[in-house]
Amino acid sequence: MARRVVTLEEKIEKAQINVAETKAKYDKAVDELEKLLTKRKERDNKQLLEAFSESEKTLAEVIEFLQGNKSSED
């Protein structure tokens, strides 16, 4: 039984299909990563807001701390 020779055009078509499928998987993975990063940021923001609400610090004091400025109490 003779082997069939795969033409260059067939190889190119197969490679294009492979690239398209791989890109679809990549795009799906990027979307999932973006969703997860957004959820983490929302969780962190909520946690920060709750901590601020429960603290006795003023907004100015919190901003000063976050910016790394020395407090006037030091």
Task: Give a short summary of the structure.
This protein has two helices and no strands.
Radius of gyration: 27 Å
**Unreliable stretches:** none
Helix share of residues?
over 70%
Secondary-structure content class = mainly alpha
The CA-CA distance between the termini, in Å, is 89 Å
Report the strand count: 0
Instruction: Give the percentage of residues in beta strands.
Output: under 5%
Continuous helix count: 2
- pLDDT averaged over residues: 91
Q: How many domains?
A: 1
For the sheet with most strands, the description reads: none
Order of helices and strands: HH
Shape: rod-shaped
Can you give a write-up of this model?
This protein has 74 residues and is mainly alpha-helical. The chain has one domain (8-66). Helices cover 74% and strands 0% of the residues. The chain is built from 2 helices and no strands. The longest helix has 47 residues, at 8-54. It is rod-shaped and about 85 Å long. The N and C termini lie far apart (89 Å). 0% of the residues are buried.
Can you give keywords for this protein?
rod-shaped, 74% helix, single chain, 74 residues, 0% strand, mainly alpha
Would you spell out the secondary-structure blueprint of this structure?
Elements: H1 8-54, H2 59-66
